[in-house]
Amino acid sequence: MKDLGKTKYCIGLQIEHLQNGIFVHQSIYTKKVLKRFNMDKANPLSTPMVVRSLNVEKDPFRPCEDNEEIVGPEVPYLSAIGALMYLANCTRPDIAFAVNLLARFSSSPTRRHWNGIKHIFRYLQGTIDLGLFYPNNSKKGLIGYADAGHLSDPHKARSQTGYVFTCGGTAISWRSQKQTLVATSSNHAEVIALHEASRECVWLRSMTQHIQESCGLPVNKDPTILYEDNAACITQIKEGYIKNLNKPTLLDLLININCLYQILSHQF
């Protein structure tokens, strides 16, 4: 067995060991993807997607209409979605929402949706070197941020869940996904998003404590702060009262809220 030194490249991830931390990025993979889809010479853009219209009929991300033609097999839509999902899941949380949105139309993509894919490619063209930097001198612990987009999919009356957890000031876990329940209000959508974030918070705390114990490091049992910007949602959770939910959903929410309270009170 031979010691090859510090890891520099692993399954498409480039790992740079700097004096003040570790920088993880996928610039080589991104260049390969752009060249694969003939977008390596495209003009760069500053945003991963266009601004959506409040008019449902003018929304560029609406489903395929009766008078629209579905793109044929000559358009590598599914391959592009797969390549972008790998980026979004590993080092590029900035494209997570746009990729998740366009992945919904994989069964019947139109030219509009393919243009959305190319928009992301052009954004990547201008941000190839972006990645995640993990400093070695940061004392910030695990912090979470949860949010929801009410009726982000107006065509099926679904909202969007989004959360991100940082450690040392850098993202370590994130998610952007359409909710499976129909939220009756923005408050309801925020509660569902907070429910998903609390589940991830419990798992992350368990994992980090296991790593700390295995490495002989002092276990950090400080409370984990989970930020939420909806006042009604915060008030209801503080009071322990959530209305207008079916029983299975309410049970899941109360279980996870109980776990969250245990975290905040050092009992977990």
Strand and helix map with partners:
Elements: E1 9-10, E2 13-18, E3 21-25, H1 27-36, H2 77-90, H3 96-103, H4 111-126, E4 131-135, E5 142-153, E6 158-167, E7 170-178, H5 186-214, E8 225-228, H6 231-239, H7 247-264
Parallel strand pairs: 5-8
Antiparallel strand pairs: 1-2, 2-3, 3-4, 5-6, 6-7
Shape label: flat
**Quick one: biggest sheet?**
4 strands, antiparallel
Helix and strand content put the structural class at: alpha+beta
Biggest sheet strand line-up = 1-2-3-4
Helicity level: 25-40%
Whole-number radius of gyration?
A: 21 Å
Q: Which segments are poorly predicted (pLDDT under 50) over 5 or more consecutive residues?
A: none
What's the helix-strand series?
EEEHHHHEEEEHEHH
Number of strands: 8
Any overview of this molecule?
The protein is an alpha+beta fold. Helix content is 39%, strand content 20%. The protein is built from seven helices and eight strands. The protein has helices at 27-36, 77-90, 96-103, 111-126, 186-214, 231-239, 247-264, and strands at residues 9-10, 13-18, 21-25, 131-135, 142-153, 158-167, 170-178, 225-228. The strands form two sheets. It has a four-stranded antiparallel β-sheet with strand order 1-2-3-4. A four-stranded mixed β-sheet has the order 7-6-5-8. Strand 1 and strand 2 (13-18) form a beta hairpin. Helix 2 runs antiparallel to helix 3 (96-103) and helix 5 crosses helix 7 (247-264). The chain is flat. The protein starts with 8 loop residues before the first strand and ends with a helix. The model has no long low-confidence stretch (mean pLDDT 88).
